[in-house]
Amino acid sequence: MARSASAYSTTIDGFKVETNSKYQPTGSTTYCNIFAQDVMKAMSAALPSGTANQMADALLNNGTPGWYSVTFSDAQSRANQGYPTIGIRKADGHGHCVVVRPKGSSITQLRDVQIAQAGSTNYNNTTINWSWTAADLPTVKFYTHD
Questions:
Q1: If DSSP states are collapsed to H, E and C, what string results for the chain?
Q2: How far is 28 from 20, CA to CA, in rounded Å?
Q3: Tens-digit pLDDT string for the chain (146 aa)
Q4: Ramachandran sector of residue 144 (left: φ over 0; alpha: ψ -120 to 50; beta: rest)
Q5: Of 12, 23, 54, 95, which has the maximum CB count within 10 A?
């Protein structure tokens, strides 16, 4: 698949994560993994199946073909070029993952990574600081796919 910021943004936007009933939380159950898996499948970059924690385990040490770890600034840069990119954090109980989306500019601070997510609150276009606490942000791992 040809990669471009425009195509990647259009793909993310097409899932309408803020209004699509498929991604809305039900009680304490959220669907960050399903949303990320759906977006990446549409980008021809399949993620491992399972929960966010199971995905984090599969991606660790570059254990999933096509996916490799990058820094937060490289994650934003790759997304800005249209490459499928995620942020993920394994946690006790339930982990969480986000789709890194094109921002149109480079970044110098982790909190400025642009994301879309399904979770307790769904966001189509915001910064990663809405996804985790300031204390947890440094433990988020980023992966991208060619």
A1: CCCCHHHHHHHHHHCCCCCCHHHCCECCECCHHHHHHHHHHHCCCCCCCCCHHHHHHHHHHHCCCCEEEECHHHHHHHHHCCCCEEEEECCCCCCEEEEECCCCCCCCCHHHCEEEECCCCCEEEEEHHHCCCCCCHHHCEEEEEC
A2: 17
A3: 689 999 999 999 999 999 999 999 999 999 999 999 999 999 999 999 999 999 999 999 888 999 999 999 999 999 999 999 999 999 998 999 999 999 988 899 999 999 999 999 999 999 999 999 999 999 999 999 99
A4: beta
A5: 12
